[in-house]
Automatic annotation (TrEMBL):
It comes from Parasitella parasitica. Transmembrane segments: none annotated. This is 26S proteasome non-ATPase regulatory subunit 5. The gene is PARPA_09944.1 scaffold 39144. GO terms for biological process: proteasome assembly. Pfam families: Proteasom_PSMB. Signal peptide: none annotated. PANTHER family: 26S PROTEASOME NON-ATPASE REGULATORY SUBUNIT 5, 26S PROTEASOME NON-ATPASE REGULATORY SUBUNIT 5-RELATED. One of its GO terms (cellular component) is cytosol.
Amino acid sequence: MSPAPSNLLEQVSLVLQPNASVSNSEKIAVLQAFAATMTASLSFERATEILQAVPLGLFYYGFSVEDDQLTTIATTSAGLSFLEKANLLGTITTVLDNPDDFDVVVQLVKCAVLKFMGNLGENEQIPFEAMSNKYKIMEKIEKCLETQNIEILIVAISTIGLVGSHPTGLKLLSDSLLTTFFSRYETAVGQVKAVYLQSISKMISVRDGTEQVEISTMNIYERIQGRPSTLLSLIKEAKQPEDSVRVASFAVMQAIAYHAWGVQLMAQSNEFMNYILNRSTEYTEQGQSWKYAIIQTLASAPDASRVLNEHYAQLQVYVRQGAHFKILEPAAAVENS
């Protein structure tokens, strides 16, 4: 016999305690079971009862755990109904307005809320646009991009990438937000640069065959404003010693190659084509695999032979040879004494 809802509520409270020695899988199971008990017609009294047993702070803690499945409680119609009726969404998003970013508690809670919003925004089945309009979520996230707290900044950048990782979310990225987003890109280094590139790759990767998405993704590309050109700036990042930056820069190149406008830009850059086709520029297996994936994408693009001109044959040879092909050098002649 399954436990009564009140028992489940006690279990939720227990597993979300900061000092609880409970595995993520157990937390997920309890939250899933609890979410299943909530109906779309959740009463205000029931919502109040839940919040009395499980204070808002415990929900914050649960959201802060880096496991997407812990947001299950908010990714069902019943879960969203609960969050709405208990005014949890309004209360949660208000946290992002707190200006005291260097207070440890504020930092932790803001990061938790941003991650939670990113998980919601990434899910195409959730009416995130309506939620954002009601609670001014995107405006609040934009404000977080102006913080001097690196931890909050990193999570805010990542959240933008998650929200903009599909066509519906891409429409939520206003001109103002994107201007703020890219304002610190050029001077970013290390982990911040890597997260920027990861988010940019998510946004540029979006495609659905419509002209609007092609325009939006190209607009994001143009906002990078790399020097001396965006493609060459990505090559520079791909040569950095930090793996996270290198991999993320390859991901952006791959995202660009998904689009007709991207293939044209790459084909028009001899410097880029020489780099991507030159096997001697990458010695790691991971980097070689990324370059191979980019070349495969270019070679399989519609009308590739015409757009890529003389490079097309080279791309085909590269694909046939494989990702880790090595050019054998003749052994040095040894004179017999």
